[in-house]
Write a structure and sequence with these properties.
This protein is an all-beta fold and 109 residues long. The chain is built from no helices and seven strands.
Length: 109
């Protein structure tokens, strides 16, 4: 796993039970599509984050499959109806099997 690949996550504060919130994520990743060539004319191999999953207390609440047309440092946001507090676990997987994880606490009043 590369140390320069970092996920960023934003979760609103002051969440009340039943609120629908927007969770914003971005992961720093080069997202090479496999369609460009290097200076020597060789194709640069595809290397993208191809999957993102989010679980709340172990139950999956979001999944996205990303394709080569997604830009470098992909930004993903999604909405979640909040019924309970817990731990949100975020996982990104890339073509080389790299696994990037982050967790945040979700506090519902």
């Amino acid at each position: 796993m590369s140390t320069d690949i970092r996920p960023r996550i934003r979760i609103p504060q002051g969440i009340q039970r039943g609120d629908v919130i927007e969770i914003k994520t971005m992961i720093s990743h080069p997202m090479e599509s496999g369609q460009r060539k290097d200076d020597g004319g060789r194709i640069i191999p595809r290397m993208i984050v191809n999957r993102m999953t989010v679980t709340l207390n172990g139950r999956q609440v979001f999944e996205a499959r990303l394709e080569p047309a997604v830009s470098a440092n992909p930004y993903v946001s999604f909405f979640l109806k909040c019924t309970q507090s817990g731990r949100l676990d975020f996982t990104w997987t890339d073509d080389n099997g790299g696994l990037y994880k982050a967790s945040r606490d979700l506090t519902v009043a």
